[in-house]
Model the fold of this input.
Amino acid sequence: MKTFKKSRWVKAILPKIKIIKSLFISAGVRCEICGPIRRKRKWVVNIIIVVESSILNIVKILCEYDSTIRFLNNPCTSKHKLGCLIDDIQYIFYSGDEKCWGTLLLYCTGSMRFNKVLACKAKASGMRLTARGLFHGENIIAGRTEVQVLNALGMNYIRPELRNTKNDWVGEMVLMRQIKKKGGF
Done:
């Protein structure tokens, strides 16, 4: 998928983002804006939206809105991720269902460092964290809500805007370093 590195001011593009979100809501499809916007960052490179629908349904909803949308990957071959340009703004849509909604929100909201901490905590506990759920072996332990996933990892809920900094979870970074030293990777 081609990436556009042009940073944009969130306030300037928020009305357009709300229009895209309203398309899905009016179609009865659950969706959430994630990434830096959910973490209340002022600048973004792309818009990340989690949608409880198939990729093909996402394409259908978007094309009904604007048939000139440029897709950055083939919707027919992509199972869970779709990139597109709408009004020169890059959107990345992640497709999921209610079983993985919470882990998908965690993954897509980030930050990347926060996601690494969660993955390390899962690994240290003999589990595996993906965007599709928290697993122990092949069994899904948690995934429906962010709270459920974080509690299963022995953590309390952390608001998205606090996931940008290490102030509220510096202990988790220390834990990650300890796991790495003990050969947890």
Residues 10-26 form the longest helix (17 residues).
